[in-house]
Specification:
signal; single chain; seven-stranded antiparallel β-sheet; 27% helix; disordered N terminus; globular
């Protein structure tokens, strides 16, 4: 009988964590398919999906040598912030901070690094109005730090809002290998 609540939770899980793929993803990720879904954070309230795209997400030139050992660690890499104008319709930065906290919690309890493979080049996280995604467009597997994503997420969420005439934004790696986007879900 102790396993019944667990079993019921597992049966209900797919309907709980399934969220709509945002239209913006379709602009660069053709025919996305869900590779995995989970909930993260101390309260398990942040939804995460790993997506595979039918097309290759590699931009014209990334400067990546595909013969390098895989995955390439891009923790601490610099990215440039772009706010989306005009203002209106951005995510609640406090709800984005819940995702940031979930990333920090997992960093301490699972490990600081995660992989973004070419087989699942798009990782999407959502909590209420906030949606953030990491896009690997290097054409090779990457490793990134959960703490770095949390920092980028907080920075973009709080600095790309209506007072800055914006509604979310992104941070693009200087070598174009990857980007993190923050927007309204």
């Amino acid at each position: 009988m102790r396993f019944l609540p667990f079993l019921l939770a597992m049966v209900a899980l797919p309907s709980v964590i399934s969220f709509a793929i945002p239209d913006e993803v379709f602009s660069f990720c053709q025919s996305p398919t869900i590779v995995s879904e989970t909930l993260i954070g101390e309260d398990g309230n942040v939804e995460v999906q790993a997506l595979q795209c039918a097309n290759t997400l590699t931009p014209a030139e990334t400067g990546v040598d595909k013969r390098q050992n895989l995955p390439v660690n891009v923790c601490g890499a610099t990215c440039d912030t772009n706010c989306f104008v005009p203002s209106g319709g951005g995510p609640n930065p406090n709800e984005c901070h819940v995702i940031s906290d979930a990333l920090l919690f997992n960093s301490q309890n699972i490990g600081p690094l995660f992989n973004i493979t070419t087989d699942a080049a798009l990782i999407v996280m959502q909590f209420r109005s906030c949606l953030s995604f990491f896009v690997n467009q290097a054409g090779i597997d990457l490793t990134y730090c959960r703490t770095d994503w949390a920092s980028v997420l907080d920075f973009v969420a709080f600095n790309c809002q209506a007072p800055q005439n914006a509604h979310g934004g992104n941070c693009v790696a200087r070598n174009q290998q990857w980007f993190i986007q923050v927007q309204h879900s």
